[in-house]
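step 3/5: co-fold with zinc ion
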Amino acid sequence: MSTDNHQCAACGAASASKRCVSCKSVWYCGRDCQVSDWKSHKAKCKAIAADIAQADSHEIHKKEFDKIRTKYGLSTPENAEKIANMLADTGANEGVSAPKFAEMFGMSTTEAVVFLEWIKVGIKFKEETLDTAKKAGFGK
Ligand SMILES: [Zn+2]
Ligand SMILES: [Zn+2]
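step 4/5: write tokens
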């Protein structure tokens, strides 16, 4: 028996022991309560589950990126500069060709794709953050 009791999102009982497997953010007494709450929980559940999935894939992608970066010594000042120049030349939207990048650093095309994708995510993330800041009235 768990000493960790939760409040049921449907009936409010304080002894809920079953958690929604998709979003892991709400608890229920059991299947009946979960089913009765599903209509109102559905949208929120999907949004949370999507967030979790995205965070997970980000985490995996980041690990791959770090592995590649270490394996090919891409964080040395010379290489970092080379990559920065390459990105500046082609422009963030165009992107660097993966085969070309792979050849340049002696890695496989797959590794180059992972590496370049992550850089793109990073750039996009930066833009979105700046955008949000602007909308909130900062950065003027
Ligand atoms: Zn309940
Ligand atoms: Zn859920």
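step 5/5: annotate
Helices lie at 31-71, 77-90, 98-105, 109-135.
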